[in-house]
Amino acid sequence: MTSDAVERLVSDLTLEEKVQLTHGAADTDGTSTGFVPGVERLGVPGVRFTDGPLGVRTDEPATAFPASMALAASFDPDLAREFGEALGREAKARDQDVLLGPGLNLVRVPHCGRNFEYFSEDPVVTGRFAAGVVEGIESEDVVATPKHFVANNQETARASVSAEVDERVLRELYLPGFRDAVDAGAGAVMSSYNRVNGTYMSEHERLLGAVLKDEWGFDGMVMSDWFGTESVVDAASGGLDLQMPGISAEDLFESMGMPADEFDPGGFDYADGMPDPRTGGLFRERLADAVEAGEVPESRLDDMVARYLTQLERHGLLGERGASGANGEGGGDGREGAIDTPEHRDLAERIAVRGTVLLENDGVLPLADDADVAVIGPNVEEAILGGGGSSETTPFTETSPVEGVEARAGGDVSVARGIPRIEDVSLFDGFGPDDADDEDDSPDVSIDDAVAAAEDVDVAVVFVRDQATEAADRETLALPGEQDELVEAVAAANDRTVVVLNTSGPVEMPWREDLAAVLASWYPGQAHGDAAATVLYGDSDPGGRLPVTFAPEGEYPANTERRFPGVDGEVHYEEGLLVGYRHFDATDADATYPFGHGRSYATFEYSDAEAVDDATVEVTVENTGDRAGREVVQAYVDSPDATDELERPPRELGGFVALSLDPGESRRVAVDLDERAFGRYDESDGWTVDAGEHVVSLGRSARDLRLDVSIDR
Ligand code: GLC
Predict the structure, then answer these.
(1) What is the 3-state secondary structure (H, E, C) of 368-403?
(2) Which candidate in 51, 97, 225, 473 is catalytic?
(3) pLDDT digits (tens, 9 = 90+) for 519-571
(4) Is 225 one of the annotated active-site residues of the chain?
(5) Which of 50, 51, 59, 244 best tests ligand 1's pocket when mutated (most atoms within 8 Å of CB)?
(6) Which residues form the pocket of ligand 1, taking CB atoms under 6 Å from any ligand atom?
(7) Does any domain span residue 345?
């Protein structure tokens, strides 16, 4: 609903001023990812846009929170909201008004270079976390920007590939997370680079207009991804409201301090996953003419501007308060925020702890306080903050695994890298992990030294990592460098060897059965070392569960070139609804570790499951262990299927509840199931619940289901 104040503003703006508010421009202070100048005579301030989903990325430090997948592994949306609030406060502290996150594309293929920035292979987990982060950011009067709308599930050829996907699959898997984010109050949505069924998302009239804006009632603004606009008339008419960064490549280079006359568009190396910056200035250069020529109705231009100004008004950026102090034009009293506070540091550690998944444990964990420990691995003297690309953050402080264990240990701690450092992969330093670890400036290291260290201690803890980045997909799920050899050698030297995975998602673990314990802690952010020590010594239970299936590389469903990364510019989502655990359940294929899996230092019993009504199931959970522990009760729904046009998964996650129980404590847990939990999307009837018995299975993972209850619909 457009307010009278915004309507008046729109009517007072000249055509040129209106167009100015539909695209970005070079940032006068150079501190943000994107900037839209204001209209000073009418009190419209300049507005700043900043990445990213893991922390605020400007030219100054900010809290480096754990990767989104670590947050999702907590299975606690309340934590997501708390994180979103902190992200909003840090954005304001850096004079930023729009936060370009959360990223919430579904994890369709384990190789996707940006999986660490996303939440899950499951749409319910994705939606709960996207909504939580959005609510948190928006509660701080910062605009949240769910991205990348939609079906941007790989980085290979992301700026041109067409995702060929069935409508029902879009509706049941790829769109729901965005629906939840919009319903949670997001003020913006970022369209993705790719095409869907042949049409670029930045000009996809059906998905941007009919679905997002009309059917879902989204009254915010749709912005393009950076240099992700392909036209003027089709984009403006198709539902794009704001072209970002909105400047030409020459202006971009100039704003980066590179003389424009050195810009040679012909020579620009558009690596496979990078957009073509030459389209950057389309709206600035041609939209006014298109409106005057009647190719774009002025009413559509007014709608674009009204959507933008409505978000400024809604977020307190118009009038006396104005946007962030840094923009000058309408800065008002600026907007207080908070950055690098003790609360944010504590939160970064809590998320890393809660997102840690205990995959295996023969009892070696938790470590005894007085245990002598060897900390081994190529990167143990640094925190693994995140992956490469626009989500990169620079923390004020960080703790490495060595620092974390040394601060906590009561026994001796020895350190051995074993192999050359595995480098970070940056978006701009060449592509592919193999570019990155071919030289190393570290001192002479050897696996023999690591073996010697492992032989002399009670427990050897090996930290390993993968390399993931925006704009490129992982070529393999195997660990880079000689990490597998390192783990195998250490495990042979000490049968009490623990491995901690710091990865963007699933990896191959050929040494898995030779180990005493395995933990997945993703990219833990600045609190890496402290969080690792907290879990290793049992100061906190590893509360995480897998938001993605871990399986042998060839077992995943997108296992043909047509399905990934695509052929002739098209990637075919032929697996349909059978993504992740849905595929493993439908084919009864073995997963190494199933979706929802995670051990605890405690043990849990389930009893007395019942359906209290046709949308709620209850179960009693008891901690039968001798330590406090965290449990995630998961409810999977097996529904009757009156259609046969697409193979329906055997069961689908309908809801979950995370809780903490002291030893011996029991609690009655209620899991709410919304209509989508029972339904399927029917192209003519929309969401449809088929009559019959719906069996709800309650358990600890997709493959550890304890009790069933029936709900007749
Ligand atoms: C990038 C990313 C997007 C980011 C934007 C600005 O290419 O796709 O997630 O927010 O550009 O950096």
Answers:
(1) CCCCCEEEECCCCCCCCCCCECCCCCCCCCCCCHHH
(2) 225
(3) 999 999 999 999 999 999 999 999 899 999 999 999 999 999 999 999 999 99
(4) yes
(5) 51
(6) 33, 51, 100, 147, 225-226, 390
(7) no
Q: What's at 272, amino acid-wise?
A: D
Here the CATH number for the domain that contains residue 640 is 2.60.40.10
Q: How far, in Å, is the centroid of ligand 1 from the Cα of 245?
A: 10
- CATH no. for residue 251? 3.20.20.300
Containing 196, the helix (H) or strand (E) segment is: strand 195-196
Give residue 63 CA to ligand 1 midpoint distance, Å. Answer: 19
Same domain, 365 and 294: no
- Helices 4-12 and 298-314, interaxial angle, to 10°? 130
Phi-psi region of 331 (alpha: psi -120 to 50; beta: other; left: phi over 0): alpha
Look at residue 61 and tell me if it is in a domain.
Answer: yes
- Its domain, for residue 520, covers 355-548
| Atom 4 in ligand 1: residue holding the nearest Cα | 390
Which residue carries 């230092």 as its tokens?
Answer: 601
Opening angle at CA 13, ends 8 and 15, nearest 5: 140
Domain membership flag for residue 342: no
Residues in the chain, total? 713
CB of 190 within 8 A of CB of 149?
A: yes
Whose CA is closest to 650, among 576, 696, 586, 571? 586
- Structural domains in the chain (count): 3
Residues 33 and 63 sit within 8 Å (Cβ to Cβ): no
H or E segment at 671?
strand 666-672
- 39 lies in some domain: yes
Question: Residue with the nearest Cα to atom 11 of ligand 1?
Answer: 226
Distances (CA, A) of 609 to 67, 366, 660: 35, 32, 19
> Using CA atoms, how far apart are residues 133 and 81, in angstroms rounded to an integer?
5
Q: Phi then psi for 448, rounded to 5 degrees?
A: -60, -40
pLDDT digits (tens, 9 = 90+) for 251-290: 877 776 766 666 665 555 556 788 888 889 999 999 999 9
Nearest-angstrom CA–CA distance, 544 and 265: 47
Q: How confident is the model over 577-598, as pLDDT tens digits?
A: 999 999 999 999 989 999 999 9
